[in-house]
Design a protein that fits this description.
Shape: globular
Structural class: alpha+beta
Bound molecules: zinc ion
Order of helices and strands: HHEEEHEHEEHEEEHHHHEHEEH
Strand content: 15-25%
Distance between the termini: 34 Å
Radius of gyration: 26 Å
């Protein structure tokens, strides 16, 4: 459970910090005769803890004629603004917006496996593989390995363990609990190669790019022998492990080469695809450009742990599309929480606080900052992304043809919200489409004006979600 701070900016009329109580804020809002209208104007924020306030004019335009059917001026609304969601992906920043992002990612990943949302249902029979690509080891860390029987095994038991140059014994006989703070932390922080770790994070997107090229080349070679052609589509999500390194979960799917006939030829099976992925992952490696700290450059390759599983959409007992989609979506809303949440970008001013040598995360940040003092763009980025431990890639990405896009899902929802809450919705239908044009709106601020407003808006959003859920359940059970 993460607790995200609710942003209160207290600039509204009548809101003088220190002079009001939550009680009086609640009462003064709820007793106003425009209270219902106010609830309507905050509804599009949908439970966001740091909403964006917009002011200006918004028009409903008839698509065919260009005629303006209705205009909403926010000056006529109770707070003279409308509220929209901040849209942040991270659950530690805004739980409501992260939940929306998670659901969208789920829909996107699932559509790529089972069809729907504009993706043909025939994709369900395409060979697909769920693969996890991990980082190599940069020194022994505390882990929680599982034995074959599903029990927690000892961390790193070594009867004749050696001692490192710092006099630390490189052995740990504990069976760690899931909540143990030492998980992912090095047995000896002074031996751990922090520089190589952040350099690896920084180059992980390039390693992924080269690996997909390797997979595509191998596929071409295989299918050429069969006299057919295929295409590779994928969706991937990055996740931080406790040791502070990213790893990637990806769904890789085979499509037909011709966009009009997306079904691939039956010659290539999912297990062939899986072995091609493993082969390409093992073979892909490159060296970074030279750096004074390592003139020969760092070697960038995947770790030895590479898990590939064939995705079956219907058969029970195997990985199902829903399970895979939920799994990927869950990670899409995380940032570096597994290592520790970082609220800010790193600068000269706060480096001593966040780059402390007393924590694993601090050492990673300090290493990224130090190495980033270099003219080459590959290393400069380490400073800008020091708060992400060097990783500058996206947290969820997909190839163009895999599925619909998050943007498409988002704009569909935004249109719907605008119409539902504000405009001339009853006029709109398939033969009489209306477009809500919001370009006349500009930024007016961020956050809720009072704690009372936040409480009322967030509880209204929670009630709305409950109604939606009940409606959905009734629909599926009826
Ligand atoms: Zn939000
Ligand atoms: Zn241990
Ligand atoms: Zn050591």
């Amino acid at each position: 459970m993460t607790l995200a701070p609710v942003l209160i900016t207290g600039t509204g009329a009548g809101a003088m910090p220190g002079t009001t109580t939550l009680h009086s804020e609640l009462l003064s809002r709820a007793a106003r005769d425009d209270y219902q209208q106010w609830l309507t104007s905050v509804a599009p924020a949908g439970g966001c803890v740091r909403p964006i306030r917009l002011h200006g004019r918004m028009h409903d335009v008839h698509t065919a004629t260009g005629e303006i059917l209705a205009t909403l001026d926010t000056a006529s609304l109770p707070d003279r603004v409308i509220y929209t969601a901040c849209g942040d992906r991270r659950a530690s920043v805004c739980p409501a917006c992260a939940e929306t992002y998670r659901r969208d990612t789920y829909q996107l990943v699932r559509a790529g496996l089972a069809g729907g949302k504009g993706v043909p249902e025939s994709v369900a029979i395409h060979p697909a593989v769920f693969a996890t690509f991990t980082a190599p080891s940069f020194g022994p860390v505390h882990t929680r390995p599982m034995s074959k029987g599903g029990k927690v095994a000892r961390c790193r038991p070594r009867r004749n363990a050696s001692y490192c140059p710092h006099g630390r014994r490189l052995s740990c006989g504990q069976r760690h609990k899931e909540t143990d703070a030492c998980l992912g932390r090095p047995l000896c922080p002074d031996c751990y190669d922090y520089q190589a770790a952040v350099v690896w994070n920084a180059h992980a997107p390039e390693l992924w790019r080269r690996t997909t090229i390797g997979i595509r080349r191998r596929l071409d070679r295989l299918t050429r022998d069969h006299g057919v052609r295929v295409r590779l589509s994928y969706a991937k999500v990055a996740e931080f492990q406790a040791r502070g390194l990213v790893h990637f979960h990806a769904i890789l799917r085979l499509d037909g080469h011709d966009p009009a006939r997306i079904t691939p030829p039956a010659r290539v099976t999912a297990s062939q695809l899986a072995s091609i992925i493993r082969d390409a992952a093992r073979a892909t490696r490159f060296a970074t450009v030279s750096h004074p700290a390592n003139p020969r450059g760092w070697d960038i390759a995947w770790g030895r742990q590479l898990d590939t599983r064939v995705v079956k959409v219907t058969t029970a007992g195997e990985l199902t599309d829903t399970a895979v989609a939920s799994y990927l979506a869950k990670y899409a809303t995380k940032a570096t929480e597994a290592v520790g949440t970082l609220p800010v970008r790193i600068s000269d001013g706060n480096l001593t606080i966040y780059g402390s040598p007393h924590s694993h995360q601090g050492r990673l940040i300090a290493a990224a900052w130090r190495l980033g003092n270099h003219p080459h763009a590959d290393f400069q980025a380490l400073r800008r992304w020091a708060h992400m431990l060097g990783y500058r890639g996206h947290f969820s990405t997909k190839s163009r043809r895999y599925s619909t896009t998050l943007r498409a899902l988002r704009s569909a929802r935004a249109d719907w919200k605008r119409r539902q809450h504000l405009m001339v919705a009853p006029l709109a239908n398939a033969s009489n489409p209306i477009v809500a044009v919001a370009t006349g709106l500009s930024y007016a601020g961020k956050g809720w004006r009072t704690s009372g407003d936040a409480l009322l808006a967030l509880s209204a959003a929670a009630r709305a979600r409950d109604h939606e859920r009940i409606a959905r359940e009734e629909l599926t059970s009826g």
